[in-house]
Amino acid sequence: MSADWIGISNEFLSAAINPLGAELSSLRDAAGNELMTDGAPAWWTGRAPLLFPIVGTLVDDAYRLDGKAYSLPRHGFARRNLFELIEQATDRIVLRLTDNDATRAAYPFAFTLDAAFALSGATLAVTITATNCSDADMPASFGFHPGFAWPLPHGAPRAAHRIVFEADETAPLRILADGLLDAAPRATPVVGRTLALRDDLFEADALIWDRLASKSLTYGAEGFPGLTIGWENCPELGIWTKPGAPYVCIEPWAGIADPMGFAGEIWDKPGIVRIAPGAAQSWSMRIALTDG
Predict the structure, then answer these.
(1) With 123 labelled, which of 105, 142, 149, 186 sits at a CA distance of 20 to 30 A?
(2) Average pLDDT of span 118-125
(3) pTM here?
(4) Which CATH code is given to the segment(s) 6-290?
């Protein structure tokens, strides 16, 4: 574990969080098996970045608010900022990002973004809370982006791994074109509730569910330990990898990339929520180790 990461643990799981971006950087079972990507630069240096105050890419990397344009990179700035540790226990920490000169230049709001990580039994719960400390309504989206080991470290071959949704997922999917949301829906590769993972699914980019029926799914190989991932206040989902990479990202989102050709104000952007002055909005994800 990096000396900069902050560890939490119990008898079932141990996790390490990097204060840079409040990024979940390691999740291990009781035997020490790593359940997440290792951040190898050959594939993707991320591990589980937090996407705030936008999810995905903006047209020309800019948005408009009250007629003024502001530049924001893909997935926003939270992942590139250092969070402050404000609570710590053996099995729980809370980290906080507060607005600063750089964030206000791109996003003219006073805010706090709290990232709480807590272990309970074989489950890690992550709760993100954005509080509007400004005197005007604040637009925001948020997304989780955890990358899990593919294959998981319990002996099943990579080709045996699949995702089983909580509910039937029959709606068409969306895909990205040059980082923006393609208008054309695509037929879902989910059969009933099961998505058999294959590299060719991701040759274009992420698979995106914007009409999601489920609030949880299970990832792994039948008969082996796996992960059940659930979420609240995240109506969209992305699943992504680079073909051949040793990870798959399972990403509950409350927000989405700009549609191709989008030219409206940020309030019109799909997935934006309006947080009133003094109010807060939370999004949560839980990752549970299952027996298989």
Answers:
(1) 142
(2) 98
(3) 0.97
(4) 2.70.98.10
